Amino acid sequence: MPQNIKKSAIKVGPSSLQGMRLNKFLSNAGICSRRKADQLIAMGLVKVNAKVVTEMGFKVQIGDKVHFDDQLVNSSPLVYLLLNKPKGFVATTQGGKVKKSVQELIRSKHSEKVQPIGDMGRIVTGLLLMSNDDNLRHKLANPNSRFPTIYKVILEENAETSDLEALTKGVRILDKVYKVKSAVFIQGGSKKEIGIDASNLSPGLLKKILEQRSLKALSIDRVLLAGLTKKDLPRGRWRSLADKEIQFLKMIS
What we know:
Elements: H1 5-8, E1 20-21, H2 22-28, H3 34-42, E2 46-48, E3 51-52, E4 59-60, E5 66-68, E6 71-72, E7 80-85, E8 115-116, E9 124-131, H4 134-141, E10 148-155, H5 161-169, E11 171-173, E12 176-178, E13 182-185, E14 193-199, H6 203-212, E15 217-225, E16 228-229, E17 238-240, H7 243-251
Parallel strand pairs: 9-15
Antiparallel strand pairs: 1-4, 2-3, 2-5, 5-6, 7-9, 7-17, 8-9, 10-14, 10-15, 11-12, 13-14, 15-16
Helix pairs in contact: 2-3
């Protein structure tokens, strides 16, 4: 930390009688406690509207942009949810109004600002993470991130052993080759039912990979996602993540 950071810091005008104290704003956003927030502010690590604030008691006004360590701070408390998505609903990161969006399943408790992490089409069911933590959403959506993902797929027609071998060796789509960790017939099922162990493979991409082998998926169910399972989570229901689960997601590289 530069020795002169306090000296060069800029105070953004006098505090207003309205608004929220900056340390409370940071605490509500889940950054840290109010006491720790005071220390961060004094160190010059917090900016309001692109200007460093070191004034204790500074109040944030509606519309102000607050950054900590150059990352935009969400003004709402951070929410982390795990949903067991039912068939017929859509999860999309593209925005806009969608008929039967997954937000409808959580709207009684949370606002539309809690967005899905990744897309899931209507035929896709199973585990879906939702959060208003933009940093985590962008991190997990990055195709270079690595975390286990297991799907149960039901096909229109039987698959061959050669199809499963091809999925693990790699399937080319345009100029890129995609492969999964393993692909097996589900024990006790038919050859239309396969289990796929992948790493951060979206349902949409998995569907395209299968189509390259002339395999049409009737349903795709995500049964494991980054160590999270559907245990005690019926279809259409959701739960908040435990602190340990959140910390694990944040450690994914």
